[in-house]
Amino acid sequence: MKRKLVTLMSLAVLSGGVLGCSTAQPSNTGAMAPKTEAAKTDAPKTDTAAKADPAAKAKIRVAWWGSQDRNDKTLKTIDLFMKKNPNIEVQSEFIGFDDYMNKVNTQAAGGNLPDVMQIHEGIINEYVSRNLLVDLNPFVTKGTINLKNVDAIYLPDKVDGKLWGINLGTNSATMVYDPALFAKAGVEELKPGYTYDDMANALRAIKAKLGNDFYGITLDNGYDGLKHYVRQSGTMFYSADGKKLGYTDDKVFVDYFTFWQKLMKEGLTPTPEVQSEFKQLENSLLVNGKAAIQPVFSNQIVALSTAAKRPLKMTVYPSLPNGKEGHFLKAAMSFAVTSGSKNQEAAAKLIDFFTNDVEGNDILAAERGIPVSSEIRKSVSAKVPETSKQMFSYIEIAQKYARESDPPSPAGDTEIRTLVSKIQEQINFGKLTPEEGAKQFRKDAESILAKNVKK
């Protein structure tokens, strides 16, 4: 089957990002997906073309972001899907991470969203509020999407009891590190339970051994690291009703960015200028041997190790003395069916294939995170390379340092992610102090949340 590929941009993941997706999470200019009157329905649409002509193929488009490794594996999996489903033709759209939301928002405005789109938990409420997604429960009920081997804990993409996406892989925030650099510097590897001060001291010792052109840890992306730190303080990032920030004392914001500013002043993190030179995941400072640690999400260990061509390891985030646990298990990303799709049944079949097909998941090799099907987890874990097996063992460790997940992020979360990045950049360039940044963030973030509250 000839593959149609639209390559809009190669990976543009911030090398210091704690995103999965990332980790999962894409950034954008703050543009919101427009509200649409596209069918908001609980009943799956039929493939009208196929019904009119049994020989006609149902054509669907699917879009995702990610690393080149993810792109290659996804394309091979889609080829297998088309081989096993010759009546369905799939057009693939691989979009660079930073441009993903801008691109799909533009498509939404033109009524041209792909039939299947990769989403993250931060935009589910936003897209549901604009009637852009289809409830997948009817496809589950009729058996098009088989979830009999999927525990409910692996299906977080629910709003008002409806299922808006199927989790492509479970992950958690992690610190990926280069054990060879720790050994070279004669510094003991960080063990779960270590503190922020422990990490800073280890970085100082490594840099003292490896020289001035070495950075201990890459910059994080702001949002996910801050959210983790807020959770460690005992609160949630957003209030339960999603109308305001969940933490009331800005000290948590100030403390977090003050810590990173101290690391930067000591040369333990790169300046934003240096970081920008190593923007892509496959070309990060860690991959190039110029940093010992990189905060990401656990599924990204595969792409990082593949690019580095050497063993890398994972450990949990630092612990906050007298604090709460900050980790939680999350959907790395999900596949959703869009309300404007004319071939929703075919789109649902593709999602089922990614969820349950053994051969397909052998190709995917858990690159997006731990598979949600218990049967696929057993199959994949027995076959994947040692690097990928780390994801499975890491999730067990992360659970020990985790507590309950936050509720689904409210509409406006995508804008707030972008806001965090902008304020972080201003702090890094010395245009704002952490205290000024905290005030500006609260003002702007709560303004964004207020305008997105359902009337």
Automatic annotation (TrEMBL):
Residue ranges of the region described as Disordered: 26-47
Pfam families registered for this protein in UniProt: SBP_bac_1 (PF01547)
SUPFAM superfamilies named among the record's database cross-references: Periplasmic binding protein-like II
InterPro entries, sorted: Bact_solute-bd_prot1, SBP
Biased composition (Basic and acidic residues): 37-47
Domain of life assignment: Bacteria
Listed PROSITE patterns: PROKAR_LIPOPROTEIN
Signal sequence bounds: 1-20
Protein name: Sugar ABC transporter substrate-binding protein
Species: Paenibacillus agricola
